[in-house]
Design a protein that fits this description.
The complex is a heterodimer of chains A (289) and B (361).
Chain A lengths: L1 H15 L9 H23 E2 L2 E2 L2 H8 L1 H34 L2 H12 L6 H12 L4 H9 L12 H24 L4 H9 L4 H29 L3 H7 L6 H10 L4 H31 L2
Antiparallel strand pairs in A: 1-2
Chain B lengths: L8 E12 L2 E12 L3 E5 L6 H9 L6 E6 L2 E2 L10 E4 L11 H11 L4 H14 L15 H14 L4 E5 L7 H18 L3 E5 L2 H7 L2 E6 L2 E6 L1 H6 L4 H6 L4 E11 L2 E6 L2 E6 L7 E6 L5 E2 L8 E12 L3 E6 L7 E6 L11 E6 L5 E4 L2
Parallel strand pairs in B: 3-8, 3-9, 6-7, 7-8
Antiparallel strand pairs in B: 1-2, 1-4, 4-5, 9-10, 11-12, 11-14, 12-13, 14-20, 15-19, 16-17, 16-19, 17-18
Helix pairs in contact in B: 2-3, 2-4, 3-4
The chains are: A mainly alpha (289), B alpha+beta (361).
Amino acid sequence: MSTLDVAVRAPASRGERLDPLALLALPATAYLGIAFAVPLVLLLVTSVWTPAGLTIDGYVKFFSDSYGWRVMWNALRAALWTTAICLVIGYPVGFALARSRGVVQVLLLVALILPLSVGVVVKAFAWTILLRSNGVVNQMLLATGIASEPVRFIFTEAGLVVGAVNIFLSFMVLPIFSVVKLIDGRLLDAAATLGASPLHRFLRVTVPLSMPGVIAGIAFVFSMAISMYVIPTLLMGDRYQTMSTLIARSYLFMRDRSLGSAVAVVLLGIAVAVVVISGWLARRSRDVR
Amino acid sequence: MGQGNGRLTYLDVAGVDKRFRDTVVIQGLDLRVGAGEFVSLLGPSGCGKTTLLRIIAGLLRADRGAIHLDGRDLTRLAAHKRNVGVVFQSYALFPHLTVAENVAFGLRARRAPAAELREAVARALAMVQLTEYAGRPIFVLSGGQQQRVAVARALAVHPALLLLDEPLSALDRKLRETMQIELKHLLRQLGLTAIFVTHDQDEALVMSDRIAVMNAGRIEQFAAPADVYNRPATAFVLDFVGMSSRFHGTVRAVEGDEVSVDTAVGVLRARGRPPVGSRVLVAVRPERLMLGRGDGEWRNAATLTVRDPVFLGSKLILHFDAADGDRAVAELASGTGDKLAAGDLVQVHWSVGDTLIFPAS
C-alpha cells in the first residue's frame, strides 16, 4: 500500500522541484516583465489614481454615459462577427492545410503567412480602395449583374468585418492547423472499426481533439479584433468609435488619462473574459456530451 | 485444434492483391479461417501482414480479390459497416475520453440505449479487470492497462471478427507473457474468431490454433503451430520459426523415398524426392540432435567442434563450428553435456525422419 502511495505521488513531487530547463524562459520572462507587466500595472494604477488621489471617476464616466456602452457594444459586435466568420472559414482551411502534403502544403502555408508581412495599415488602406463605391468589389458586382447600382461597403460595419476577417484569418487558421496536424490518424481508424460513421468520427473524435487549436484561434482573433485601431479608423472613419479609438481620443484629444486608462482596463477585462470563457466552454463541451 | 480442414469457412480472403505505387505488398493471397479459430499472421516486418489486416478491417482497399465474413461480402463495405473489431499496436485510445467512455465509444456510435450501454461497458471492463479504472483518463494508465482498455473497447460491440495488430509488442517481456495467456483465454471463452498479427514466433506458437507464416506478401505455410515447427513447408518458415542446424549440399542418390546428400559434414539422409545433382538444404531442429553415434533410423551423424556452449538452466544449447552458410546447433537437456567446452569434438546423430530437406535458394 505504501509503495503504491509513493508511486502515485511521485510525479507530483517531481513537478514541485524546479526544472533547470525552466531557466531558459528567463530572458523572455524578463522582457515581458519590463515591456508588458510594468506598463500594465501603470495602466491599472492610472485608471484609479489621479494627482487628487484614489478615484473611480474614469470608470464612472465611461459606464454612466450611454455613449460608453454604445462604443463597447460596437467593439464587441465587430469582434464577435470577425471571430465567428474567421472560425467558419478558418476551420476547414486549417484542415485542408493539415491534410495537404508536400509542395501543396508549402504553397498554402506561404499564401497564409506571406500576407502577415504586409503591414496592417497597408492592408486596411487596400480594403478602402477595394470597397469604395467605384472600387473593384463594386465593379465586379455591377459587371456580373449581382448588383444594379454600387453597394455601400466603406464606412459600414459589414465592410469593417470583411476587412478584419481578411487581416486576422491567419491567426485562426495557424493554431487550428498545428493542432489538427498532430491528431493521430489511427484514432479515426479505430473509430471507424468501432462502427462510427464519417460524421460521428468527425464530431466525436476530430472536433474535440481540435478544440485546443480552436480555442487558441478564437483567443488570438478575438483579442486582436476587439482592440483593433487602424482598421476601423481607415474603414469606418471618425464617427464610428470602438474602444481603441476611444482610448486614443481620451489620451490624445481629451487629455483624460483616467478615462483612457479605465477604458483600456475594461477592454482588457473583456478580452481576458472571452478567452477564459471560451476555454471553459470547450472543456465543458468535452466533459458533458 | 487440428488443421481446421473439416471446419466451415467463416472468414474467406480470396485472391487479394495490394500494391503501394510500384511496390507489391500482397500478391494473390488466400486465407480461410474457421469460426472460433485463433489465427496468427506471423512474418518479418514488411511482409504485408499489417496491410492484410487493414484490408480485412476495411481501412485499406485491396486492388483485387474478395473478402467474405460469415457469408457476407465485405469487399466493398466501409470499415464502420463491417463489424470487424481491431486492437491496434499503438492501442489508438481516444485521449480526450475516460476509460469507460473509450469502451462506450462503439456502443454510442451504434446508438445503444443508455441502460444497455452502461451494462455493456461494465461487462467489458470487468472482463479485463479494469472496473475500478472506469472514470480515469487514459494518460494515467500503464501500457498493460491501456492494452486492456483497447481490448475491452473492441469487444464491447461484439464484433463478428477481432483483429489484433501486434497488441503486445509494446509491453515488457514478463507482462507480455502474462497477457498472451490472458488474452488467449478471454477470446477462447468468448468463442471469438480472431486474427493476430505478430513478428514474434514464440507469441504465435503460444497463442494460435493455426499460424499463417507470411513472407513478401504471400502465405508460405498455414498450419497448426506444431506442424509449422516440425514440418516447415519452406526454407523461409524453417528459418523464421525456431532454430535449426542447416547444411547445404548436393543430392548424390535417390533410394525409394529417401535421398542421400553430400554436405560439409558428410553424407546425410532425408525423406524427399529432389532430383539427383540438385542443390538442397538439409536441416534438423536442435532438440532432435543426440550425443553419440546412432544407427538404423538414427543414422544421420556428424562430428562437430563445439564453438559456444550456452547454459539456459533447464537446457544446454551447443553452437558448433560450421562451414560457410551452414549452421549447427544442438539443444540438450541440462546434465547431458555439462562437461563440454569450446573446442571439444562431439559426435551427434539424429533420425532420418526428423531431417528436413528444401531446394536450396
